[in-house]
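User: Could you check the structure of this?
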Amino acid sequence: MRVVILAPPGVQSLDVVGPAEVFWEAARRLGDPNAYEVRVMGTTAGAVCGTGNLRFLVDSTIYDPDEPIDTLLVGGDPSFDEIDPAVTAWLSRRAPTVRRYGSVCTGVFFLAAAGLLDGRRVTTHWECADKLRSDFPNLIVDDNQIFIRDGALCTTAGVSAGMDLALALVEEDFGRELALIVARYMVMFLKRPGGQSQFSAHLAAQMSTKSQIQEAQEYVLENLSKDLSVDALALRAGMSTRNFSRVFRRELKYTPAAFVDAARIDAARRMLADTKTPLQRVARACGFGTVNSMRRVFVRNLGVSPHDYRKSFRSAYSDKDVTPKTPRRPNAGEAARQPLWPERAGAGQVGVLSGALPSGALRSVGARSAGPSLRSKPSRP
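Assistant: Sure, the predicted structure tokens are below.
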């Protein structure tokens, strides 16, 4: 089946390469190079310059005679100022003729300008969600999702989310077994944790412009098991509780309590997925206190219990109990044998997690093996 990726000038390169790699790997595993025929379409003939100074030689342009298309995806341009009317005219004419169509990242703006999204529920990169709402008020913009399927329409969040969508389409076309093989090979989640926000607490902490708020956020991330009530955080920020709450909400668009919950969920997700630490220790280390409290927060925010989360998303390397402990100072004999910085995990290691802001697809490094085809019943990777 033919997959066409429309690459406007300045396209985010991974919007093209990411989905193309997923489809190509699926075809390779099937032993059928025609299972997915990926073609790059441009607005002009020749090369399209993408981000990172990568250049793509297009297979066709929007001005060429129409050819059958099964799946049409539109890549995003992170710096676009205006949309070429020829592109929107082509999209409005071709999109209704394909089996499914969609966008990666800010490619949604092209579909919206073509009049294809009115009244539809869509997503896009978190940084552009407010602009999408402002420019196209008839859309239902949900920036808390990695991708959204609405009938034949698919829209995704930023950059690497196009790979998540491509995996979902592979599963739809050829089944879960193939999609799982491709996901394992590319070191990706088959399905990232459901219902997740594109933000992580760690990233949000970098976004405040007020130093007092930043300091409070950093304190939260480094002290998840301590008292993180609004009163306590306001005191650390040197502000009244009322003013702290008001400024925090104005800066970040959500409450201090919501930030604390997000930070604790992020840390708990990492411990649940990457370690064998018992649930009660996870709950204490991440500041929930009890397993029941952690369960309530997980179900309320993620729609899944901590136990079910661990069962679904546990890493292949989850073989250690790494409950955070205060490292003791080594004695003189031990000092020479120990690393300068002890390994830390869990509550103190939040980062950009596979939690609220997904970590993006981790690409495998090294030579590409030929690999068996699915039809020859390969052993699972």
